[in-house]
Amino acid sequence: MKPILFSRVSFLRTYIKLQLYIVSRILYVTKTNLRASPRFKFYRMIRFCECFRMPCLECVTNMSDDFCSRESLGSVLREGKTVLILDCRPQADFIRSHIKGSINITLPGLMVRRLKKGNLKIQCVIQNNDAKDKFNKLWKTHDVILYDQSSTDNNCNTSQTVDLLMKKLQQDGATARILDGGFEEFEKTSRDLCEGTNTTDESIYGLCNLKISDDSGVGTSESDNDNVNSPSPRSQYPVKVLPYLYLGNAQNSADLNQLKKFGIKYILNVTPNVPNKFEMDSDFKYLQIPVADQLSQNLSAFFPQAIAFIDEARENECGVLVHCLAGISRSVTVTCAYLMQKQHISLNQAYDHVKQCKPNVSPNFNFLGQLLEFEKSILCQNSTQSVNEFHFQCNDNVKVPTTQQNCEAAT
């Protein structure tokens, strides 16, 4: 049975009922008081009602069941009742201090937009297995409380992440509320219910290992997500992203027949340990970027070198294969960076195009963050464009393919 969390809306309802009762009694008295003139009775009723003014429509709208008071949450936690608590602040703040038992969820801007579209499940933004199991076990049967640093129901100062997650949970049938006052106010009154941690392990909480994966799945690492020794039909051949640019995996890079079939003579290997099988063959030119699919890796430092390598293949009218181990994270990141800079499109446009070509793309969030920073650097170089969203005009001779034929896997 769900613990009951009382909010100020309960008081509001009682207050309104009391006012309605008072007004009804006034109407009854004025109606039965035949000695007073109609004008006097009406004036007396209005003057009396001014002492019990109803809240304005804005106040009634703002004071809703979407908020839970910090006193109620504190009382429930002290009684040992089970509540699912989601901390929607930056991970650094969560590590510093948080409500005991809470799960940290932090969404970058791109993921916020995808969650809005319904293309991402909330479970996908919780990487830690214990936290994910806890969420799956409780979100349908217990109250869900979300909080940021200082959300209140008085000024609707809720963060986009908190508001979006609450609405998503409510749409899915959960009983979700926002903690009034956020963590800042809760900590003042219930410091004993808060805790901090000294851990710096990025894999413990939140989105750190999250991959942008299929709608039905949860992001995993490349090695876990794809078994190179047991390829799917689509992984047996590279995917054409541009007429000269192909995206693939380690198996594709070792298939000489496929490489020759598509005129691929340039191979960009975005792994530290997958061998360059045809390195001794003078027909092929290699560039190896020794980056692992881990949070600590800085792939963006190699963007200029990778982009120049791909452009060299284009200038020589040769095909170029960009690959990593499974072809879903590192190689996708490099491909998106190339499209953004050379095709003059935003990260959203580049990612959507690559995903249309290869639906199982899943760059990890560290690389995604580097792409966001790369997008900002491109914006700085093109300062005449909007700082909120840039949509450059593509060169007439080099455009991102928009037809299904240009995006389908090479066969």
Please render the helix and strand layout as text.
Layout: H1 8-32, H2 38-49, H3 57-62, E1 67-68, H4 70-78, E2 84-87, H5 91-96, E3 98-99, E4 103-104, H6 109-116, H7 129-138, E5 144-147, H8 160-171, E6 176-179, H9 182-189, E7 194-195, H10 222-225, E8 239-242, E9 245-248, H11 250-253, H12 256-261, E10 264-269, E11 285-288, H13 303-315, E12 319-323, H14 330-342, H15 347-357, H16 365-381, H17 404-407
Parallel strand pairs: 1-6, 2-4, 2-5, 5-6, 9-12, 10-11, 10-12
Antiparallel strand pairs: 3-7, 8-9
Protein name: protein-tyrosine-phosphatase
Organism: Mytilus galloprovincialis (Mediterranean mussel)
GO molecular function, one term: protein tyrosine/threonine phosphatase activity
Index terms:
411 residues, alpha/beta, Oxidized Rhodanese, domain 1, Protein-Tyrosine Phosphatase, Chain A, 5-stranded parallel beta sheet, 5-stranded mixed beta sheet, 17 helices, 12 strands
Structure at a glance:
The chain is an alpha/beta fold. It is built from 17 helices and twelve strands. Among the domains are: 67-195, Rhodanese-like domain (Oxidized Rhodanese, domain 1, 3-Layer(aba) Sandwich); 239-378, Protein tyrosine phosphatase superfamily (Protein-Tyrosine Phosphatase, Chain A, Alpha-Beta Complex), CATH 3.90.190.10.
